Structures are given as C-alpha cells and as structure tokens.
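Hey,
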Amino acid sequence: MAVIARGDVAATLPGLPSSWVLSVRAFRCWLLAYRRTWRSSVWSSVFGPLFYLGAMGYGLGSLVDKNGTAALGGVPYVVFVAPAVLAVLAMNTGMTNALFPVFGAMHWNKIYLAARATMLRPVDIYRGHLMFMTMRITMNSACFVIVMAAFGLIRSPWAALLLPAAALTGFAFATPCAAWAVRLEHDTQMNYPIRFGAVPLMLFSGTFFPIAQLPGWIRPLAYATPLWHGVALCRALSLGDLDPAAVAVHVGYLAGLAAVGLWAGSRTYRRRLYV
C-alpha cells in the first residue's frame, strides 16, 4: 500500500474560506430573509420615529418654546430633541434586532442550528448576524437623518457624521444584547432589557430635557448610561457644539461597550453552538 505524506494529503484538500468570508455568507442568509419581510418593518423602523418626533418635537415643543429656550442652548425644542430621537432609534433598532431574532434563531426557526451544521463556526455566525444588525441600524438611522435635513433640523456641517455616530450607538447596544440573548431559554426574559433598560434610558438620558434639569444626586448615574453618550454625541454633531475631548469620551465609551459585547458574544456563541 502506498503511503501518502501528510503534506501531500493537505495539498489535495481544498482550502477553506477565511473567517470573514464565512461571516459574509452568514450575513447573506439574513439579508435574503429580510428581502422577503422588509415591508413589515417599515412602520416601526421609519414611520414610528417620525410620528414620535412630530408629537414630541412639534407638539410638546410648541409649549416648551413659549417659555423660552435658554436651557436648550437657544435652539427650538424640535431641533434639540431630533438628534436625541435619532440616538434612541439607533438604540431600539440595535436591541430589537439583537434580542428576538437571536432567540428565534436558537429556538423558533433554528437558523443558528442549521448554520452550525455547515462549515460556519460560532464566531462566523455571530459576526454575520452582527453585520445584518449593523445594516438595519444604519438604514433606519439614514432615513431619519434625511428627514432631519428635509425639515431643517440640522444646524451644522458636522451632521455629516450623524450616521456613523448613530450606527456606533446602535452597535454598542446590539453586541451585548446578542451575547446575552443567545443564552436564554425562555422568551419572556427578553422583555427585561426593554422594560427595565430601554424605557428608563430614553426618559433619563437627556433625550427630552437637559441632564442639568435632573436632581444633582442622579446626574452621575445619567452621565454613566450608554444612551446619554449617544444622545450627547448626536446632538453635538447636529448643533455644531463640539468639544473634541467630550466627543472622544463619547466615542470611546460606545466603542468600549461594543468591544465588550463582541468579546462576550464570541464566548457565549461558542458555548451555545459548539457541537
């Protein structure tokens, strides 16, 4: 019997695609599914935030503006709140696309389990899904930025960076949420981050009024929330009130949170999908 050297065997095997190529293949799976279901997301992704902006920015804003806008930096209330709504939209998009779809991919439609039966590794599945989440965050944010520009709610050319700022904000929420959701066994647990996380953050992170209006004892807690950093970053870019040191802190905080989520997700996905 002829003996084949190990090098000869390796030479006869086809080379496996790189990890990023496999991640793109996982992303294309989600993209294909979204092409069939995108119409159902238009309301929550586009029209919902627009009506919210109209009710809060123009409706409540008409009352706020009558009493003066000095606390808002001298700008109309709708101009003050619009970039904050953009940050909230990015947060909500990142969380909703990282919670229910991830849990469903494990328990309902079992997309993750089917993908794991292929050459895709857990990290490839995680990265591919994060690519799709980032696409959704960017698409929704782009629609809202266009509306802001159309209604004259942008006051600075720095607003050209609003889209990457919103995408970073949403991504910072998506990575840890996905890392957590893949571990869940019961769908009711997914309500906790929204009920006890997203809603309080939206109310107390400087979205509708300056943090300075809060009691002094709670302000440090508000400044430590990730949504406040996203709101402050988007607002500074929209109004042109930029402080390089503050911008660096906001970007660093959000990037650090996203990095922690990436690290945690690589571990939780490997534990859950390793076979």
